[in-house]
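In response to reviewer comment 3 from the previous cycle, which asked for concrete evidence that the modeling workflow produces usable outputs, we include below a single protein chain processed end to end. The sequence was submitted unchanged, and the resulting structure tokens are shown without manual editing.
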Amino acid sequence: MLVTDKVITMSESEWHQFQDMTRAPWHPRTQDEFNAMCDLGTAMHRAENTGGLGEVFAQNCQRIKFDAHGVANFPADKRKLEYIRLYGHSPSPEQLAEFMESSTSKGTTGLSLVKNHD
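The workflow returned the following structure tokens.
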């Protein structure tokens, strides 16, 4: 994701990841639109309790927002998302390091590439 003169540009894969996380109806053009879509995604996940983990998904929507300095935590860290998918909560830095170490020692990263052909 790039921000140039306050205009956001996303690759197609970033857009799909953002849309999957927030169910955004269009590409956000500005940081304010990006943050508003994150807020809507948060509300939607809490209301629907998505997959029984609505609050976790809601917190993830909040974590990717732009801060007061114009810094966003997006695209999301796939390692953390995989940990959350497996354990239902965000890892501490130590838990994430242990998770990555155990995944690497098994010869896998704990992640897989999935192509969605809609």
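DSSP finds five helices and two strands in the chain. We consider this sufficient to address the reviewer's concern, and the full set will be provided in the supplementary archive.
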